[in-house]
Amino acid sequence: MAGTSAEVPVAVIGGGVVGAAVAHALARRGVGALVLEAEDELALGASGSNSGILHTAFDSPPGELETALIVRSAALRDAFLEDAGVPVLRCGATLAPRGEAEARTVAALASAARANRVPATLRDDGALEVPEEAVTDPVAYTRALAQAATAGGAEIRTGARVEAIRHTGGGLTLELGAGDAVACRVAVNCAGLYADDVARLAGDDSLAIFPRKGEFLVFDPPGGRPLERILLPVPTTRTKGVLVFPTVDGKVVAGPTAHDQEDKTDWTVRDQAREEILPRAIAMLPALEGAEPVGSWAGLRPAGRGTNYVIGPSTACAGLINVAAIRSTGLSASLGIAEHVAALVAREGIALGPEQPLPAVQVSAGNRPWWRRAAGRRTGAA
């Protein structure tokens, strides 16, 4: 049977939170993008297996693109959350140092927060309070973006894996399989773990993405008492470390680990994850001593080799915009990333209209907590 073809101004490759946000931003400006997601559902990759924490950039280095996009996203987020009815727990966070060295690091973070204009208070005991850190359901967040984008003229196509990219007159043709193809003037590569593979289809070998596994343990609230705040460790240059945080459905989660690997398909929780997480978690929340996890999951963050937040036009393929190596803050920065990418799309010759509100779409969080969906990936029950 002959395949089908479509022609659109912009094709977005990848239906995670960043791809959905890009479609949302374009729809708000009158451009109906086509989102091509290889999996059968949205947010089955890193977007649906992270912590769900909405960071404020209090600990991000001032002046970096990642920092600017997280801060911008935070400014845009409340209106979106309210319109979409996405569950959010506005609990704030506390970062308490242990020892003089960590106290100096926390004081430096307080200075960074001031530079980034993020509300934060350094207490007399050296702990840092960050009141605007929050927790959401990342799957509901992604679905809400996609649904609002669809209401504004975007199209979402799942089970649509891009297998080849070739130049045609005035644009690109994305070949999908079974003879299906999409012609577009601009393609935005938001393929997460596979962004380097997608770029190579277009002759661009500038990206190298590897999976950094983050494992999480889920607990019932110790003593039946809900955790009221996100508990943060002092971060290192490599990772934010093991956190302890509440979920929107009332559980307590500890994690993640930061295990670098090569296999992009290995979502299993390693046997050693427990010993890497629990001692650090108990140090922050002693009530977890002796508690048994009721669940666990692993997420694979798309880490770049020696780089982070690679966002811009491909130097090897005209009409392709790469949005890659969005390592661990994609959820938090998604709205800011999307606004930034919309401006790049305009530079590629796509006319954007004035920003308009999209029809209000109330998203359903589903019948089970998002973290159970993430946990099901390793058992085939996702």
Compact overview of the structure:
The chain has 382 residues and is of the alpha+beta class.
Could you explain how this protein is built, in words?
It is a single chain. This protein is an alpha+beta fold and 382 residues long. It has helices at 17-28, 65-84, 100-115, 138-151, 195-201, 273-284, 330-347, 370-375, and strands spanning 5-13, 34-36, 53-54, 88-89, 93-95, 121-122, 128-130, 134-136, 155-157, 164-168, 171-177, 180-189, 209-219, 230-232, 243-246, 252-255, 259-260, 295-304, 310-313, 320-324. Strands 1, 2, 9, 10, 11, 12, 19 and 20 form an 8-stranded mixed beta sheet that branches. The chain is globular. The chain starts with a strand and ends in a 7-residue tail after the last helix. The mean pLDDT is 93.
Which class best fits the helix and strand makeup? alpha+beta
CATH class: Alpha Beta
The portion of residues forming beta strands comes to: 15-25%
Q: In sequence order, what are the helices and strands, one letter per element?
A: EHEEHEEHEEEHEEEEHEEEEEHEEEHH
For this structure, the quaternary state is single chain
Number of helices: 8
Task: Give the overall shape, derived from the CA principal axes.
Answer: globular
Q: What's the architecture, going by CATH?
A: 3-Layer(bba) Sandwich
Low-confidence stretches: none
Integer average pLDDT: 93
Nearest-angstrom radius of gyration? 21 Å
Distance between the termini: 31 Å
Largest sheet: 8 strands, mixed
How many structurally independent domains?
A: 1
- The tally of beta strands, per DSSP, is 20
